[in-house]
Model the fold of this input.
Amino acid sequence: ETGVTQTPRHLVMGMTNKKSLKCEQHLGHNAMYWYKQSAKKPLELMFVYSLEERVENNSVPSRFSPECPNSSHLFLHLHTLQPEDSALYLCASSQDGPGTGANVLTFGAGSRLTVL
Amino acid sequence: TQLLEQSPQFLSIQEGENLTVYCNSSSVFSSLQWYRQEPGEGPVLLVTVVTGGEVKKLKRLTFQFGDARKDSSLHITAAQPGDTGLYLCAGTSGSRLTFGEGTQLTVNP
Done:
């Protein structure tokens, strides 16, 4: 596999469920990101990991919990979500961390989350 | 807070027509990227512009970075149905990458 792979592509969950989104990159990049994409809104940066250390957490509610076990894998653990959390969650990677060069991102196809 | 405003938000045209999409800000960016996102996929980088006044061409797509590095435009010549998608601009300032809301382009056969 090449590029950035996200699973599952679609997820429907109740507000009391616990689920996880998975992202894997095969590009040898050193930084990984979680973005939230909602209709008619700019992409919202949620978390950034650079060399497996979390370097940014943009005031995201604690019901979203990221995990980066190594430079190739990134998870987003979901717990007691709200209907307004329904969105497309995009994972991305970049060669280097934020603030280095043009910060070009390679995105996965996204995980479409629906919270009932 | 840095904001990038894209216009128009929606654009529906016929195959063969030309179009221009704009990305504007009051902030200066060290570089600006354009991405295209097709349905069911993530955004894919089209181009990065870094110098004020820079013009880059990618087949029928022409990208321009404003002289003051606060704005950018994307011009498509003779649009084709395959150009359909969400076009996103994103500006880099320091460690922050700011995205615009996007322009949804539909090219009808």
The two ends of chain A are 33 Å apart (CA to CA). Chain A touches chain B through 20 residues (CB under 8 Å). Chain A has a mean pLDDT of 91.
